[in-house]
User: Which sequence fits this backbone?
């Protein structure tokens, strides 16, 4: 089984990646293993695979492959690895939804589980060059807020024992933003994952499930 020397495990992404790899028995402290650096803009040494958020500047060190992650979200908190739109909206809802709601942008959200699963798969056939990762579907900020608001209302109804018929209604929001939003090129990532023996880049975590996890983590953190 492949070994890994994981650098930057203290970052939100590094912590999740270490848990994912160690769960399947991969040693993440192997000095002669694949060198992976989870980098958020601090100093970085050379590695086989550099993983960074799109907000971080290019690393000056040499890396065989760079994976740039866009619009990542983590239920436990994204740190500087992704946008804060979901956290900002949850805090606004939890405070009573009073005043001006926080602003946001259309996003190609990708859940941390899909991201670390893809990295684990890439270890089977390490690519080179730059790969960009994000979700395949773009969510407008309005649709994201509507979905999060609906799930928050369900949660509050469960707490208050005040469920109504409208809380059980299932609707499909119109997610596409009115403005044109360019998605990062996912073709290199898709091809690299196919070369690693998978079906390519197909994120599996439903956005609604991910949002419910965000709500649960937010409540537990209070």
Assistant:
């Amino acid at each position: 089984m492949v070994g890994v020397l994981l650098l930057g495990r203290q970052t939100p992404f590094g912590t999740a990646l270490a848990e994912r790899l160690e769960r399947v028995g991969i040693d993440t402290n192997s000095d002669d293993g694949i060198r992976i650096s989870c980098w958020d803009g601090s100093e970085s040494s050379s590695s086989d695979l550099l993983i960074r958020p799109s907000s971080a500047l290019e690393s000056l060190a040499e890396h065989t492959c760079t994976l740039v992650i866009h619009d990542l979200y983590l239920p436990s908190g994204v740190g500087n690895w992704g946008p804060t739109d979901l956290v900002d909206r949850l805090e606004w809802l939890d405070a009573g939804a009073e005043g001006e709601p926080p602003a946001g942008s259309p996003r190609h959200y990708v859940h941390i589980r899909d991201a670390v699963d893809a990295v684990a798969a890439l270890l089977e056939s390490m690519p080179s060059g730059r790969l960009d990762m994000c979700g395949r579907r773009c969510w407008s900020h309005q649709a994201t807020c509507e979905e999060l608001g609906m799930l928050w209302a369900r949660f509050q109804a469960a707490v208050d024992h005040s469920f109504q018929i409208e809380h059980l209604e299932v609707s499909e929001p119109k997610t596409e933003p009115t403005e044109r939003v360019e998605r990062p090129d996912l073709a290199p990532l898709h091809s690299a994952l196919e070369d690693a023996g998978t079906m390519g880049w197909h994120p599996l975590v439903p956005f609604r499930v991910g949002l419910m996890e965000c709500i649960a983590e937010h409540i537990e953190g209070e």
Q: What stands out?
A: Residues 141-160 form the longest helix (20 residues). The radius of gyration is 19 Å.
